Structures are given as C-alpha cells and as structure tokens.
Protein 1
Amino acid sequence: MGFCYMAVKQSTFLFDVRGGINQHDKLHVIPDNQLRLAQNVEVRYGGLKKRAGYVKNPTTVMGTSRIGSLYWGRKTDAAKTAYLFGSEGTNVKYWDGSAWVALITGGTAGTRWGYTIARGNIFMTSVNDGFYMWDFISPPGISFVQLLYYEFVIAHVDRIWRVRERDNPSLSAITKVFTNYGAEHMWEIPSTEADQWITGIMKMHNQLHVFTKQDIIRVPGYGPSQWRRNLVDTQAGMWASRSLETFPDGFALYLGINDIYMYPGDIPTAVGRPHIQDILDDINMTYIENACAMKIADEYWLSYTSRSGGGTVNNRTIVINTSASPWAFNGPYTYGFEAATVRRDTTGEIAYFGSTSIGQVYQAKSGTSDDGAAIAIDVQTKSYMLNAVQRQELIDLAIFGEISEGSTVTVKYKIDFASSWTTLGVVGMSASGAHEGYRDDSTSTRTYIFHPIKFPDGTTGRFIQIQLTESSTNAISIHGIEIRHQDAAFRR
C-alpha cells in the first residue's frame, strides 16, 4: 500500500511588513541576526529608509582649508544675538547672515578652537594661539596676555575653566569670578602619563566632569574651598574629545578606546557592542582622536575614520537613536566630519558640520542627495536558514516598498554561504519584468510596489543571503522581503 506526500510552498519573511522590521522583536530594532550591512539607511517603523542628505548652508565658502571647529552661540542678553562661529586655516570667523567675518586672523593653521559663552561674551581658546574674548560689539579679537595655552574652555560656577595646557596636558586653570580673567586656581591631575592627559570636560547635574583616556573625575562644589576630585571610573576614559555630547535625559555619550559609552554621571556603560561590533572594529585607531559627534534631537551622530573606507580623515558616520526602546543603530553613512554644531532656537534645530577638505559648512538631514551627489544604499542580510532538514527550491522573491519613479533597486543573493553575489534582478516601476504598484494619488511620483522576481529554474539551497543596492537622488523605503520556496525533493 502506497501513500502520497504533497509538497507545500513556504514563505520566509526577511523583513516583515506586518510588524516592523521583525515581527518577533520590538520596533526600531535590528536583531543581531538580521543584517550584516545597512549602509546609508535608517531603521524606521515598518522597515528601512534611505537616509537624508546634506546641503551647503551657508552657501558661501569660509575659505580654502578644511573646517577645524564650529560653534553656534547666542549672546546671553535681551537681544539674544546669535552667530555661527568657525575656524578655517589660520582664521576664526563668524557668519553675520550674509558673509563670513574675520574674528581672529594670523593663527596657527589647522588649529581647533574651543568656545563658550558667558556674561554676554564669547570666550575662545586654542592650544597654539591663546585665549580670546569678544563682547559681540567691540572690534573682534580682544586677546589676553598669554602665559599658558589651553585646548578646552567651559563656563561653570561663575568662572571660566581652561583645560589641557599645551605643555602640561594634565593641567587646568580656573579664572576668578567674572570681574577679571586672570588665573585664580590651578588644578592638575597628578600624573604625567599620556593616558592621564585631559581629553574633555563637561557640565552635568551642576557638577563638572573631567575625562582622561583612562579615568573619569567628578568635581563638585561652588568654589576653591569646596572643589574636590572624585574618581568615578578608571576603565572607561574618553579617547576622542569631540565625541562628547550631553542629552536632556541626564546622560552623555562619548567614544572610548573600544566602545561608545553612556555616562549618567556615575558609572559608564558600554552601549555599542555587540550591536555594531563590526563598525567599532572598523574605526582606524591611528585617527581615533579625530572622531567627532553632534546631537540632533534624540540622535547621537558619531563620525570617524574608517579602515575599510581608507584615508586619514573622518569618512563614515553612525547614528544612535536614543528615543527608541531599545536604542537603534543606523548606518554607517558614507561621509564624515571633524567639526559640528547644532543651532537650537524657536525655529527648531539646524545641524551644521564642516567639510574635511575645504572651508565649506553643510546642513545635515536635508534633502535627498549629498550636495547634489547620489546617495548609494547597500543592505545585506545575514544568512537565513530556510529549512534545517530539507534542501529548498527557491521559487521567487518579492519586495515591498516605496520608491520614486525612475529609481530601481538591484537584488542579489548568495546560496549556502557562496563567496560571490548572483544578480537576481531589479525592482522598480521603470524596471522590466512583472510588477504591481499604486500611487497615493494620480499626481504622486512615489509608488508603493510589490515586485516578485523568479529565481533561475533549479536554484536550491538551505541558506540564503540577500543584498539590495540603489544609487540615486531619490527617496526609497524597503518595508519587506518575502521569499517563496518548497522542498526540493518534491519539485515537479
């Protein structure tokens, strides 16, 4: 007596449009087994979206040399006078709304400046060119007599703190109360080791926090008689001074020797590994001190020099969305910056960053191109097991998404850990082959697509990996990928 076995076609969802990027996990989360590369895309509810681009702002170039530092500051008076400050080459300039105006000239080429505003003045310091103050009114460039030169400056408890002296990087100088700005108090970390040189300083919870490459030190108190140094941590120091950003929820993020750390004012916690271990491993440690960050809304943007990207300047950027639960990691994005600042006023936020080659300032998260250049996405899944027991015949693959008219997504695959990609086809309203689509309305240029592509006859395997690439100045979203397959033994 015989029996009959009927083969059943199965579907595997790599991205599931029914419940976010993966219906079994919280929204906004890429599980560790989901993607191995998400270049130039953001994780969004329901899938992946091509990141926003950037535009020139101001359109007028600051100079011919790369941007060394940027700072958006508002005068603390009734008028709330605000300017965008920056350094380029040997100059410090500010944007007055129509042109870049020289503030300090004849400085040391390539020097990065530190800035802070207090009592209606902006204070500027550089490790090579000294300590300057401007009241937003007098002729620019009022300089103090220099005896020591410091890299960082911050206003705290009615004093100006200058930190990391040029010849003694463990030394700080604190000025007198705001009557004059001579040094009232000298403060030094008792070590001459390079790992104990000061790498950054910030205010949080009404206290000052000082970072070295090894330690974090908290300084409570409101005057010299109260100041004391509390050692918080000796294992999670900061290696990139410009990677430090504070958040309104009472924590800071910064780049350490082997991870990104969240610091709430006491014990720091590593947050990058294992989620973005491959990205962290790609940071070129020779240039780690060039890493630079900016905070846009609830996002932490960190730019770094990539080993795989080559070069000696920052050329990749990752974004951590701290409002997602748990946090979402986006990128890498294929551009970098070494100077950044964010303007915050009643009109909202504008994020500025500087070119790493010329004196051009850009506005981040604007438009669908990188200053007119196409944004190329590259999404690669990790290998998925279709069936542990039976070898599977691949029938077809369908893409769910939203794409602009004229754009196409190239789909490639690997079977059973193959060494190279095989092109399956292209997806898009202008692509050849069967497809279905619809628009929001008759005038919309964006099309929602369901586009099945057949695998070559006889394609079989147990594991599959998918790659999606697209390069244009158009927006695109990928909401889902479905693969239909059946047991190869019952192929007819």
Note: The first strand starts at residue 10 and ends at 15.
Protein 2
Amino acid sequence: MLFEKFKTFIEENNLVKEKEKLMLGVSGGPDSVFLLIMFSKLKELKKIDFITVHFNHSLRKSADREEEFVRNLSKNLNIKFVSEKKEVKKLYKGDSLEQTARNLRYDFFLKIARRYKIKKLALAHHKDDLVETVLLRIFRGTGLLWLRAILPLSKYKNLTVIRPLLFLEKREILDFLSKNKIPYMVDKSNFENEFLRNKIRLDILPYLAKTFPNIKENLYNLAVTSSQDYEFISSFATQTLEKLILKETHQLLEIDLNKLKTLPQGLVNNILRAAIQRIKGNLRRIELKHIDKLSELIKKNNDNLSLDIPFLKVIKQSHSLIFKKTPNLT
C-alpha cells in the first residue's frame, strides 16, 4: 500500500524518469532505510539504476557503525555503495557546526555525482520534517518563498534533488519497518532537547496537537499552497522583469528603475528576487533582509547609491538599477 502511494507521489511530481541514474543519500536512520527499500522495489518497474551514498561526519561515537550498517545493507540489496569520512569538528570554523556538516556533505554529493555522471540525488525528508521546517520559519519570521519549506524537487548547483517521501508521516515509516522487521540505526541526538528543531518535534508540536489535532496536516497544506502561489507569482515577476531589462551581460543586469517604481511593492520584491536569481544563478544566502534593504534603496531620492549583498553589488542610478557580480562582499 505504501509503495503504491510512493509510486503515485513520484509520478504526480515527475521525480523519476525511466532508465534514469540516481544516487540515494542513506544515513542508516529509519527514513533513509525506508527510502532505499522503496527504490529497490521501484528499480525493476522504472528500469532505473542507483547507488547509495553515505557521508560519515565523525560527530557521534556510532558514526562508523552507521557507515558499516549502510554498507552491509547496500551489499545485501546488491547496490553499489560509496562513502566518505571527514572530521567535521576539525574543519568547523566560521559557520555553525550544522552548516559546516551540511556544506561538506553536499560537496561530497557533488563530487560523487561528477564521478559517476549522476544528475539526481534522492533524500529521505518526510512530512514531519516539512511541518517542523514551516513552524521553525514562522517562529523566525518568513515570507511566501520560505513557507514552501521543503520542496519535492529542487536544485543544488548542478544537482537535481528529489524528496519522494514528503507525503508520509514519520509514524508510517516506523510502522512499515517494524511490521517488516527491517533494522535501522537510531540517532540519539534526535531526542535531545537542546536543539530548537528537536524542541519543536518533541515538545511544541505535541502540545499544539492537543488543541489542534490537524496541526500537521494544516501546516503541510500551508506549505503546498504557498508553493503553488509562489510558483505563479514568481513566473509573473520573471515575465515582468523581461520587460524592464535595459542591458544584460554575463557580469551585469540593468533594469528600468522608473518603471519598477510604478509597480506594487509585492511585485517589486519578487522582481528583485528574479533579477538576483538571473544574474547570480540562484538565491542562496539571499534573505528577506536583503530584499528589504534593496526596496529601501529604491525609495531613496539620492542617485549613485550602492548596496552590497552576497556575491552582488546593486547600484541605484537616476533611471536604472544595476546588479553587478562581485566576489563575496558580505
């Protein structure tokens, strides 16, 4: 039954094509083990080929056992296994430990993708992960763009990232593994209350569910509708941006400031995002505060003003707004 739902979700979101080659990020926890089992079933139906990839962060005493567990599980399923081990704590500098670990993990994914000529990575995020992310972003302050939380399909540099378990709750995954006597590793840090996401999972969501029994489904629906609305708004903003472009090169994008000022603020904000994405190639490290500062810059009466945002310098002239690529200035 769950496999049919899994297959339907993949087809509805066009996540996997026939005869495609992928890699699966498998940590050894219940979610990624379930993902691996589902893809093993899908393999013959879709004639796909995939490998399992595991990044050992060396952050827990159990890290080596987890790597060995995934290695053996892959071997039992006759699937190629690739891993890498790094001492994340020794490499941790400016960013948070969590961000450093993520950066190293994704660098590993990109390296393996190049080595094996793979363009798609499947990860095991599920509905509970999505709901926790929505709530976390509401608490921190967010807009429509970030309310989408975790998308079924996204891009990381040259890698397409799919998340085919977003329709499933964690309890459904655990029930399946228990009923089928499928072993998995347990990350004990998931039950420690010192991390904000864990507090949301262990305390805040259960508390809210007592008063609002449908809280998970409601937050999930909020993410889905936000994604649909943002897709429409983003598409319209991109079309409008095309009409405002005065000059465009590989290093520079210049748009008509006078016409931009006549548009509603909500559309202006999305045009600014579209312009940044067009010249920069992505929206990584671009936050709401950067869009707000750009909006303030546009409203000022002075000319020849500039603002530095991640990897870009934005210059306000009398009749135009110029986005220029730079080395990282922030």
Note: The first strand starts at residue 21 and ends at 25.
